[in-house]
Amino acid sequence: MRTVWTACVLAAGLACAALPAGAEEHRQLGAHVHGHGRLNIAMDGKKLLMGLEAPGADIVGFEHEAGTPEQREAIAEAKAKLANALALFQPEAKARCELEQVKVSLEDGHEEGSGHEAKDAAKAAAPAGQAQAAGRHAEFHAEYELICQTPQKLTSMTFEYFNVFAGAQELDVTVVTPKGQSSFEVKREKPSLDLTGIM
Ligand SMILES: [Zn+2]
Fold first, then answer.
1. Which end of the chain has the lower number of beta carbons within 10 A, N or C?
2. What is the domain partition of the chain in residue ranges?
3. 104 and 54 Cβ atoms separated by less than 8 Å
4. Digit-coded pLDDT (tens) for 62-107
5. What is the rounded (10 degree) CA torsion for 189, 153, 140, 4?
6. Ligand 1 mean position to 140 CA, how many Å?
């Protein structure tokens, strides 16, 4: 990490500012487009890791702090749905993938103990109580770890995600395997991913 950072500073100056761990997350919060989420997929042996980042607008239809019991309920329900990975993203059955671990969070900028510099800066720039009006965008994040008994048969994935979450229109999908990295756009109109030859 230190080597990369140093080389980067020498080569490109300011462009390196986004490199340190965590910086990218700060940039992305507030930079998302409603309807558009991201799904990163990495296959390593039998282990299939997936990371979802979705605007609150896509998942529950709002991004402000939950102010009513109904809104809190909506967030709790959404987290439960997001935890059920195989009901959202269905790998080809022949790959025999099972969910091992899951972690779901709401990055809403109002979590206790938040130390995000970007948020602190926004608060400092706006009078008390107006930080939210500065265009903060809450996101749901989910991390999944699956084990696939026959990973070479993972030739497709179906996205039930779009049926579960009415506000979601598109996912930018990146797939990383020992063979390399591929990028896709999976849309509501065609909710499937062809992984032939990639795994
Ligand atoms: Zn937003």
1. N
2. 1-25, 32-194
3. no
4. 999 899 999 999 999 999 999 999 999 999 999 999 999 999 999 9
5. -120
6. 11
* pTM of the predicted structure, to 2 decimals: 0.74
Q: How far is the CA of 136 from the centre of ligand 1 (A)?
A: 7
Q: Is the pLDDT of residue 126 over 80?
A: no
Is the model more confident about 56 or about 117? 56
Q: Could you tell me the two tokens for 197?
A: 């030859």
C-alpha 36 to ligand 1 mean position (Å) = 10
Residues, CB within 5 angstroms of ligand 1 (ion) = 55, 63, 137
Residue 81 has a CB neighbour count (10 Å cut-off) of 18
Which residues are within 8 A (CB) of 24 and not within 5 positions of it... i.e. 6 or more apart? 18
Report the separation in Å between the CA atom of 1 and the middle of ligand 1, taken as the mean of its atom positions.
31
